[in-house]
């Protein structure tokens, strides 16, 4: 019989306290003149199935590890051929019995032998530093145990000087996948054990700082910056550019340019003690909540943010410097100005890059206990005092490590951990240590420990209510008064899973209308898809369940603005447009354009403005636009040039673009920042190509102008020389997007589910009549799924003139529909050879009713294959909005032209049907058919964000109602 041990007899990996033997937390810095030795690279590695399954003989000098494998450090062993990654969102993938963990506890023994460089100094101390190990480590050097630690995304150091020898040092690290700490690390992401950040030996010279704290404030009323560097060693702080040379601990005031995310002004300096010289990069800024508004240097900040997990498709959370930089460049190039480091402190070098390139950072502690929600929060570690020291330890390690970054303006206690005194203890410690930054925590809606009223996935309506300060009161008047005094943040919104998110522009309007609503952070930056191969060698991205997990949350791990390979998704392009820092609108009748500076701090002098006058998407005249200097919030209305007198006939617009006038650290000169289009000349009315032609019955079918139809069904079989694979007929379904399918916890109707239940994907088309009249062929049908009396009476009226065939579709719904339609339009099939698309309309990328802002009216040409958006889980994608005409042609240029008459349509073309798209689980399941399927839609249902948040706003519903629309088809000859 075994007896459950008392906590003090638990093994270290089940002990909830912070570990043993480590040094106090301190500031991180990239470089100094003290010696350092990287211990990254190839390490000997052995995996055991249990924590105690292998002996610890490997820590000895003479241990034989010749039979071991090797892994790369930094890295995760599960991504290097040992075991497998696993994905769960909320649920713990082990029985919940804190602080105990399962006996099956994959344990990786790591061993590395190293020599000291010859010049390694003999004085002072040497410190062994681990930047990140998941989830618990026990460490030996030269056979001596140094200690143990938990807290995966936080640094841990040991003093090792006396143990070092010139040659043949044996560093041994045992890493357990599961520990008491795992209960604090239930973030929605892959479980990825390993030494995933650097291991370094750092020399600590005698009289070098143990720690230092740079306090650099800015008084916007005077333009004066103050600097004081606290340090436990006497020393000097110099900032040559400011002529500063002061003692540590001494405060100086000097006129400076402030640091902001828009103007990331850093001053190079140095902290010199007798033992060490440490480069400093000082950014002067003062942040905090004043009068209910979060301000930097006295001005309100509008967060145009994203939540960033650390992710690399090959390396998991072992993200290299180049990838970190790429993330920030991509953010800056898409007008993003803020990052929440969801839900743990990132690699410290990432924050250096944020300082340098300019991003506001919410630095979030490595804490999430969301899995306890499944238990009604019973046993939540933030209410279990055995965990309190570990919680405070985590807060301390984060703050001490990251306190010298000007980009970090808000500390966040963690994510989705309920409420409890453990959080209060963290908050108290942070407030005491660093009162100059604000504090954030979302999951306790009383907000006792937060300087923000923060929510995730709140609906537009709720945000608006909060903006108006009309939120539902809290039962406790004191807490309510406190919450009413707080600025509002959406720490997560706009769930970017699959196609979407929709409704971004409507949120942005609220953020710019209500001072209290200071923006938000889209969930999330990148899809965490891990590459896999089909048996025949094609690669695709896998998600939860693809790695043999018994419990998983499927593709919920792929909900980013970037695809796993960091290609921007349409959602990111939409976000870029929605949050552009300059608004460009105009009035062609008045001949003016208005440029509004939406920056919080910067002017517009770093931008160049250019106009183009475009007819049917072709620029016929262009020039520069002189924009005067504009203060943040300022605007100017400027005259547009006269429309060119010799412009050809056709629909015309003014397109005005704001681009970088000079190279910046994050994008080259010419990079597009903002744009606007002003309609100038509307589309001319179509005139019929000739007198109306009459239908006739011939041996091979009904003839009407260029069209040939099936006499029994009325289906269009051919037009001109083009034989169709399938004639146009009503289509009201789409392969549900993740947002259509919605999340089980959403109270609203989940239309993707209802469409399937109702059978929109299996409608039947009953032919009631094929009628020939003098000038038309009319096909009367009823479109309806089985087992219901709901239906859509659908008439197709065909007329012809010259070589044009005009189709008018009239739809009359029957019955009481419980949902909007997914789409309303016709689908037709074309020969596979018609693989080249061209259109005049919105583009170049996809758009749906609530994701249209990024679409630029223009003329585009691309292969059908390039019209597809490769969502990791295939789903409806690729619609082009506001299309005036579209063509599909073969190599010789022969094909079909479809023109709007007059209402523009949504144009989609793909080499598989919606049914195939719907059936696919991964991109490699999509195999081209020998038909190009074309959807021409009069309407589409909105996208919304219901895979986690609210669905589309009602104004984007494709409500079931009588509708009529027309399209004109022409066969185009090749050659
Ligand atoms: C939030 C959570 C995130 C993520 C998101 C859904 O509730 O904070 O970590 O799970 O939902 O993707």
TrEMBL record:
Which SUPFAM superfamilies does the UniProt record give? (Trans)glycosidases (SSF51445), beta-Galactosidase/glucuronidase domain (SSF49303), Galactose mutarotase-like (SSF74650), Galactose-binding domain-like (SSF49785)
Output compositional bias ranges, type Basic and acidic residues. Answer: 1-11
Q: Which residues form the Beta galactosidase small chain/ domain?
A: 701-970
Q: What class of enzyme is it?
A: hydrolase
Output the Pfam families linked to this UniProt entry.
Bgal_small_N, Glyco_hydro_2_C, Glyco_hydro_2_N, LacZ_4
Does Hydrolase appear among the keywords?
Answer: yes
Q: Write down the superkingdom of origin.
A: Bacteria
Q: Which InterPro entries match?
A: B-gal_small/dom_5, Bact_Beta-galactosidase, Beta-gal/glucu_dom_sf, Gal_mutarotase_sf_dom, Galactose-bd-like_sf, GH, GH-type_carb-bd, Glyco_hydro_2
The UniProt keywords, alphabetically, are: Glycosidase, Hydrolase
Reaction equations catalysed: Hydrolysis of terminal non-reducing beta-D-galactose residues in beta-D-galactosides
What Enzyme Commission number does this protein have?
3.2.1.23
Residue segments, region Disordered: 1-23
Q: Which family does it belong to?
A: Belongs to the glycosyl hydrolase 2 family.
Xref: PANTHER family: BETA-GALACTOSIDASE (PTHR46323)
Q: What is this protein called?
A: Beta-galactosidase
The lineage is: Bacteria, Bacillati, Actinomycetota, Actinomycetes, Kitasatosporales
């Amino acid at each position: 019989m075994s007896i459950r041990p008392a906590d003090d007899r638990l093994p270290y990996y089940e002990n909830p306290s912070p570990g043993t033997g480590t040094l106090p937390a301190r500031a991180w810095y990239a470089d100094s003149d003290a010696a350092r030795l990287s211990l990254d690279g190839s390490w000997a590695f052995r995996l055991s199935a249990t924590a105690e399954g292998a002996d610890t003989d490997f820590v000895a000098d003479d241990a034989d590890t010749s039979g071991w494998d090797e892994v790369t450090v930094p890295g995760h062993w599960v991504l290097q051929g040992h075991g497998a990654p696993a994905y769960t969102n909320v649920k713990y993938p082990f029985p919940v019995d804190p602080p105990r963990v399962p006996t099956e506890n994959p344990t990786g023994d790591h061993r590395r032998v190293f020599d000291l460089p010859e010049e390694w100094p003999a004085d002072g101390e040497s410190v062994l530093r681990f930047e990140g190990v998941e989830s618990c480590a026990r460490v030996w050097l030269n056979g001596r145990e140094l200690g143990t630690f938990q807290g995966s995304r936080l640094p841990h150091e040991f003093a090792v000087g006396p143990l070092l020898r010139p040659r043949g040092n044996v560093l041994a690290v045992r890493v357990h996948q599961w520990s008491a700490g795992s209960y604090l690390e239930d973030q929605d992401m892959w479980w990825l054990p390993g030494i995933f950040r650097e291991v370094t030996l750092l020399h600590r010279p005698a009289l070098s700082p143990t720690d230092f704290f740079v306090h650099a404030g800015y008084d916007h009323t005077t333009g004066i910056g103050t600097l004081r560097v606290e340090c436990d060693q006497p020393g000097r702080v110099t900032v040559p550019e400011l002529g500063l040379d002061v003692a540590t601990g001494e405060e100086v005031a000097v006129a400076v340019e402030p640091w902001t995310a828009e103007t990331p002004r850093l001053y190079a300096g140095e902290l010199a003690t007798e033992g060490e010289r440490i480069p400093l990069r000082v950014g002067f800024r003062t942040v905090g909540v004043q009068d209910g508004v979060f301000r930097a240097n006295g001005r309100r900040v509008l967060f145009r943010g994203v939540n960033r997990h650390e992710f690399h498709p090959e390396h998991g959370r072992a993200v290299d410097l180049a990838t970190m930089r790429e993330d920030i460049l991509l953010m800056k190039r898409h007008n993003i100005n803020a990052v929440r480091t969801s839900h743990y402190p990132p690699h410290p070098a990432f924050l250096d890059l944020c300082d340098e390139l300019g991003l506001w950072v919410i630095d979030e502690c490595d804490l999430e206990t969301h899995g306890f929600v499944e238990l009604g929060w019973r046993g939540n570690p933030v209410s279990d005092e055995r965990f309190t020291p570990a919680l405070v330890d985590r807060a301390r390690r984060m703050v001490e490590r990251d306190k010298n970054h000007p980009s970090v303006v808000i500390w966040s206690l963690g994510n989705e951990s309920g409420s409890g005194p453990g959080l209060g203890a963290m908050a108290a410690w942070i407030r005491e240590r660093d009162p100059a930054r604000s504090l954030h925590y979302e999951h306790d809606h009383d907000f006792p420990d937060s300087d923000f009223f923060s929510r995730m996935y709140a609906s537009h309506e709720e945000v608006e209510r909060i903006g108006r300060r009309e939120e539902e009161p809290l039962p406790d008047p004191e807490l309510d008064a406190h919450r009413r005094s707080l600025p509002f943040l959406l720490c997560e919104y706009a769930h970017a899973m699959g196609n979407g998110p929709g409704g971004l522009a409507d949120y942005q309007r609220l953020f710019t209308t209500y001072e209290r609503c200071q923006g938000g952070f889209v969930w999330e930056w990148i899809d965490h898809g891990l590459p896999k191969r089909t048996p025949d060698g094609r690669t695709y991205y896998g998600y939860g369940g693809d790695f043999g997990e018994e419990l998983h949350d499927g593709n919920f791990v792929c909900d980013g603005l970037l695809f796993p390979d960091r290609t921007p998704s349409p959602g990111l392009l939409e976000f870029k447009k929605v949050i552009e820092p300059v608004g460009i609108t105009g009035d062609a009748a008045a001949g003016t354009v208005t440029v509004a500076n939406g920056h919080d701090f910067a002017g517009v002098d770093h931008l160049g403005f250019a106009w183009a006058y475009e007819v049917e998407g072709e620029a016929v005249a262009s020039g520069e636009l002189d924009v005067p200097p504009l203060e943040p919030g300022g605007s100017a209305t400027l005259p547009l040039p006269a429309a060119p007198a010799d412009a050809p006939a056709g629909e015309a617009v003014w397109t005005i673009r704001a681009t970088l006038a000079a190279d910046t650290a994050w994008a080259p000169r010419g990079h597009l920042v903002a744009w606007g289009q002003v309609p100038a000349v509307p589309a001319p009315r179509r005139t019929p190509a000739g007198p109306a032609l009459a239908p006739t019955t011939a041996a091979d079918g009904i003839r009407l102008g260029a069209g040939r139809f099936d006499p029994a069904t009325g289906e269009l079989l051919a037009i001109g020389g083009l034989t169709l694979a399938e004639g146009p007929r009503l289509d009201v379904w789409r392969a549900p997007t993740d947002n259509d399918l919605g999340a089980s916890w959403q109270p609203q109707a989940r239309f993707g589910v209802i469409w399937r239940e109702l059978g929109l994907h299996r409608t039947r088309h009953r032919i009631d009549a094929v009628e020939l009249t003098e000038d038309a062929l009319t096909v009367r049908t009823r479109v309806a799924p089985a087992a219901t009396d709901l239906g859509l009476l659908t008439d197709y009226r065909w007329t012809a003139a010259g070589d044009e065939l005009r189709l008018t579709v009239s739809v009359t719904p029957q019955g009481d529909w419980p949902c909007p339609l997914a789409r309303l339009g016709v689908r037709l099939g074309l020969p596979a050879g018609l693989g080249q698309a061209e259109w005049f309309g919105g583009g170049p990328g996809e758009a749906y009713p609530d994701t249209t802002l990024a679409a630029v009216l223009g003329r585009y040409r691309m292969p059908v294959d390039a019209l597809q958006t490769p969502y990791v889980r295939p789903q409806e994608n690729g619609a082009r909005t506001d299309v005036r005409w579209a063509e599909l042609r073969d190599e010789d240029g022969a094909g079909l032209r479809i023109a709007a008459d007059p209402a523009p349509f949504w144009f989609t073309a793909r080499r598989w049907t919606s049914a195939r798209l719907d059936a696919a689980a991964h991109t490699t399941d999509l195999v081209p058919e020998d038909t190009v399927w074309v959807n021409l839609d009069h309407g589409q249902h909105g996208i919304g964000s219901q895979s986690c948040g609210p669905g589309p706003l009602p104004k984007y519903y494709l409500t079931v109602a009588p509708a009529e629309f027309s399209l004109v088809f022409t066969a185009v000859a090749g050659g």
